[in-house]
Every structure is written in C-alpha cells, then in structure tokens.
Specification:
368 residues; alpha/beta; 7-stranded antiparallel beta sheet
C-alpha cells in the first residue's frame, strides 16, 4: 500500500482553524461586552430613575412645608393636604410625578387629630421607559393653638410709642391741595422724622393706610393750616407739639390707638374734630389749649373715643383716666367719622403668630 508523505497545504489549514477559533472567541467577547454595556445602561437608568423619584419626594416636602407654615389650627386638615396633589391627584415635573400612596388619599389623622400622617408615592422616569418608585411618609404635629382656652385680653396697655416695623421713612412731609392722590396717600406705615405739615390750599386730604409715627425733632410734629383732613388706618403717634392752626377746620380720624404729645395749641372748638376708634394715650403733663390760650375743657374739645383714655404717671406706667374732657364715641359720631373725605379702613393685622402645625424632620422612605 502506497503512503503519501506530502505535507503541502497543512499551514493553510492551521491558519483557517486559528481564524475560526479567534472569530468564535471574538464574537463571544463582543456579545459579553454588549450585554455588559446593556446591563450597565439599564443600571444607570435605574439609578437615575430612583434619583428622579427622590427629587419628587423633596419637591413634595417643600410644597407641604409651605402649606403648613401658611396654615393655622383651624385652616389645615387632611382635605387641605390631599388638595396639594391637585385635581388629578398628581404633582408632576420633568421626569417624576407624585401621587397619593393610598388611592386618592395621602393623609390620615392619627392620635385624635393631633398628628397627620401623609404618605405619597413618587415615580421617577428615565427616557420614558425605566421607572423607579419611592414611597415617603411625612408626619405633621399639632403644636396646639395659642388661642385655646384663652380669652382676648382687652385690658392690655400698649401705647404706640415705638416706631412701626417695615415703615416708609421721610425727613418731613408737606401735603397741599395739589399734591395729588399718589403723594397724599401712603400705603405702608410712615415714620416722619420732623413734622407733617398741611397748608397752601384748602381741603387738603392726607391718608395713611397703616401706622403714622411723627417724631417732631424740630419741636413740632403736626402743623395744620386751612382745612385739612387726616386719616390713619392704624396707630397715630405724635411725640412733640401739635398746632391745629387756630382758625383752620381740622379733621383727624384714627382707626386704632393714638398718642398725643404734652402740648397741643390753637384748638378751635367748632373747627377741630378728632375721632379715635381705639384708645387714647396721654403723657404725664399735658396742656391742651384753645386758640385763645385757655386750657380747653370738654365743651371746647370735639374728641370722640371708642376705647379708653390712659395717662402716663411718674412711675412711667399708663393708668386709665375715668374723668377726662373727651366724648365717648356713639353711632352718630361714628357715622360722621366714616363720611369724612380722609376716612380710611382699619388696617389689616399681619399674622405674626407661630404656626400651630409643624412638619417633623424625620421622613420614612421605602424603595420599591
């Protein structure tokens, strides 16, 4: 039998086999890399989706905190909390949306309403496909109303002797008939360093919608001429002398409390009229004189007060004065005051009470 010992072509066969081997290995490695890349992308999307869901929780937390700060003991309930998620019961922005964790309700009362438990579900979405859900529970404590069981104390003596906060400040202020509405109406509280003067034109009208505080560092706080009508929606304070102008027709309306200085001159009984809807505070020594320099008596002073009259003592304590030369405001004088050209409404009191509810710092979060 004849045996072939020719080895021509063997190298080519080996090369082909090696190419086939490396091709198979390369395809396997490529498939592995592609699968790893896909898994990494999926994992990254999941992380981003969870991050978006957490952003939703933070977003809702800010909205809830703002709601609680603006609420009082009677103005907050589970109905108000559920309404934060809108009519569709969702709050959305960019790649997340928040909804109640329990159907249409996110809030429930605990411990007889002393604690509100708010549970929401935030879903983060990436590229419209990958989603991650985070469930978070907030707790709102009722700190109790500061008005619970406390009746309003009408005997507190609080003379308006300090400058009002957030007030507009002027060195002096002169109002004439031709000042114009924009110049003769002050929307905020006003502090005048020197004096408020009215004159050079009849029928001058000045309106301060909040507090009017006049220091009178030049020795006089209020100097009126001709006919003037001054309306104050809050407190009126004149620390130094007031001069009504003698022959002038002067009207002053104060919706809250008033503090008059030691000296008021040129009081014309048939031309000067004052309406104070709060209390009147007087210094220890005051001499209110008519235009002929005689000390004014009750018949000379058309001062109508709805509240009480207090006078400072040597011990720097204001005490109520029972016998005083002023009139008690009645319906007739009240109607007259409200018909004045400078009549302004009583200023709205700012809410400076501490919130009766507070959101706890601890938040229970669970990832789904």
């Amino acid at each position: 039998m004849k045996t072939f010992k020719n080895e021509k072509g063997y190298a080519l066969l080996m090369v082909l086999m090696l190419i086939l081997l490396f091709t198979v290995l390369g395809m396997g490695l490529m498939a592995t890399n592609m699968n790893s890349a896909k898994q990494f992308s999926t994992k990254e999307n999941q992380v981003q989706a969870r991050h978006q869901a957490e952003m939703g929780v933070l977003h809702y937390g800010v909205v809830l905190e703002d709601k609680v700060k603006r609420s009082s003991a009677t103005a907050i309930s589970c109905t108000d909390i559920d309404a934060l998620l809108g009519t569709t019961k969702k709050l959305s922005k960019d790649d997340y949306f928040i909804e109640p964790a329990n159907g249409s309700a996110s809030c429930k009362e605990v411990d007889s309403g002393k604690l509100l438990e708010v549970t929401i579900k935030s879903t983060g979405t990436v590229q419209g496909e990958t989603q991650k859900k985070v469930e978070a529970t907030f707790y709102i404590d009722n700190l109790g109303s500061s008005l619970d069981g406390v009746a309003e104390n009408t005997n507190i003596i609080n003379p308006p002797l300090t400058e009002p906060e957030n007030a507009q400040k002027r060195d002096s202020y002169i109002v004439t008939k031709h000042s114009g509405e924009a110049l003769s109406t002050i929307n905020n509280s006003l502090v005048i360093n020197k004096s408020l003067s009215t004159g050079r034109g009849a029928s001058t009208v000045f309106k301060a919608k909040k507090h009017l505080f006049i220091k009178g560092v030049n020795g006089i706080s209020l100097d009126t001429n001709n006919h003037a009508c001054i309306g104050v929606g809050g407190n009126f304070t004149a620390l130094n002398k007031i001069d009504w102008g003698g022959q002038s027709s002067i009207e002053l309306l104060v919706r809250q409390d008033a503090y008059f200085p030691t000296s008021i001159d040129n009081w014309k009984s048939d031309k000067t009229i004052i309406f104070i809807f709060g209390n009147l505070y007087l210094p220890e020594n005051y001499t209110y004189k008519t235009h002929n320099n005689n000390l004014a008596v009750k018949s000379d002073m058309q001062v109508y007060i709805q509240g009480k009259v207090f006078q400072n003592s040597r011990s720097n304590v204001f005490k109520e004065v029972i016998a005083h030369p002023f009139y008690k405001m009645d319906q007739t004088s009240m109607d007259r005051a409200n018909s004045l050209s400078c009549a302004v409404p009583k200023m709205e009191e700012e809410n400076i009470k501490t919130p009766n509810w507070i959101v706890q710092d601890d938040i229970n979060i669970s990832y789904q």
